[in-house]
Amino acid sequence: MLVRHSTFTGNWYGVDDHSGGGLYVDSIFWHHTASGGTSLLGRYEMDLLDGTQIVGCYVGGATASLRGSIEPVDNRLAAPDPRFDAD
Q1: What is the pTM (predicted TM-score) of this model?
Q2: What pLDDT, in 10s, does the model give residues 10-48?
Q3: 35 contacts: CB under 8 Å, gap ≥ 6
Q4: Number of CB atoms found within 10 A of residue 35's CB
Q5: For a 10 Å CB count at each end of the chain, is N or C smaller?
Q6: How far apart are CA 80 and CA 65, in angstroms?
Protein backbone atom coordinates (compact mmCIF):
# COMPACT_ATOMS: atom_id res chain seq x y z
CA MET A 1 0.00 0.00 0.00
CA LEU A 2 1.32 3.44 -0.93
CA VAL A 3 0.15 6.56 0.91
CA ARG A 4 1.44 9.75 -0.66
CA HIS A 5 0.66 13.45 -0.16
CA SER A 6 -1.99 12.72 2.49
CA THR A 7 -2.95 14.45 5.71
CA PHE A 8 -4.06 12.63 8.86
CA THR A 9 -5.24 14.75 11.80
CA GLY A 10 -7.72 14.73 14.68
CA ASN A 11 -8.25 10.96 14.70
CA TRP A 12 -7.70 8.49 17.52
CA TYR A 13 -4.29 7.66 16.00
CA GLY A 14 -2.63 8.22 12.63
CA VAL A 15 -1.20 4.89 11.47
CA ASP A 16 -1.12 1.50 13.15
CA ASP A 17 0.68 -0.74 10.65
CA HIS A 18 2.19 -3.92 12.03
CA SER A 19 2.18 -5.71 8.69
CA GLY A 20 5.06 -3.64 7.38
CA GLY A 21 3.34 -3.43 4.00
CA GLY A 22 2.77 0.32 3.93
CA LEU A 23 4.92 3.02 2.37
CA TYR A 24 4.14 6.52 3.62
CA VAL A 25 5.65 9.38 1.58
CA ASP A 26 5.41 13.17 1.92
CA SER A 27 2.41 13.06 4.26
CA ILE A 28 1.35 14.90 7.42
CA PHE A 29 0.47 13.16 10.69
CA TRP A 30 -0.74 15.80 13.10
CA HIS A 31 -2.13 15.71 16.65
CA HIS A 32 -4.38 12.67 16.86
CA THR A 33 -6.36 13.44 19.99
CA ALA A 34 -9.91 12.15 19.37
CA SER A 35 -11.62 10.84 22.50
CA GLY A 36 -12.78 7.28 23.12
CA GLY A 37 -11.05 3.98 22.46
CA THR A 38 -9.51 1.48 24.82
CA SER A 39 -5.73 1.63 24.32
CA LEU A 40 -3.70 1.92 27.50
CA LEU A 41 -0.88 3.43 25.42
CA GLY A 42 -2.63 6.75 24.85
CA ARG A 43 -2.74 8.71 21.60
CA TYR A 44 0.03 8.55 19.03
CA GLU A 45 0.76 9.51 15.45
CA MET A 46 2.33 6.24 14.25
CA ASP A 47 2.82 2.70 15.53
CA LEU A 48 5.04 0.85 13.09
CA LEU A 49 7.30 -2.14 13.50
CA ASP A 50 9.48 -0.92 10.61
CA GLY A 51 9.79 2.85 10.37
CA THR A 52 12.03 2.78 7.31
CA GLN A 53 8.91 2.94 5.14
CA ILE A 54 8.21 6.51 6.32
CA VAL A 55 9.91 9.08 4.07
CA GLY A 56 9.52 12.84 3.87
CA CYS A 57 6.69 12.96 6.42
CA TYR A 58 5.82 15.79 8.78
CA VAL A 59 4.87 14.43 12.21
CA GLY A 60 3.67 16.33 15.27
CA GLY A 61 1.91 15.25 18.44
CA ALA A 62 2.54 14.10 22.00
CA THR A 63 3.91 10.75 20.76
CA ALA A 64 5.15 10.83 17.17
CA SER A 65 6.35 7.22 17.01
CA LEU A 66 5.03 4.79 19.61
CA ARG A 67 7.94 2.38 19.04
CA GLY A 68 10.55 4.99 18.14
CA SER A 69 10.95 3.33 14.74
CA ILE A 70 10.61 6.39 12.49
CA GLU A 71 13.91 7.72 11.12
CA PRO A 72 14.27 11.40 12.11
CA VAL A 73 16.82 11.90 9.32
CA ASP A 74 14.20 11.09 6.67
CA ASN A 75 11.24 12.89 8.34
CA ARG A 76 10.35 15.97 10.33
CA LEU A 77 9.48 14.78 13.85
CA ALA A 78 8.18 17.22 16.49
CA ALA A 79 7.27 19.42 13.54
CA PRO A 80 5.93 22.95 14.04
CA ASP A 81 2.25 23.68 13.48
CA PRO A 82 1.42 23.40 9.74
CA ARG A 83 -1.23 26.12 10.18
CA PHE A 84 -4.10 24.36 8.45
CA ASP A 85 -6.77 26.57 6.91
CA ALA A 86 -10.49 25.80 6.54
CA ASP A 87 -9.84 23.73 3.41
Answers
A1: 0.86
A2: 888 888 888 877 899 999 999 988 887 766 777 889 988
A3: none
A4: 6
A5: C
A6: 16
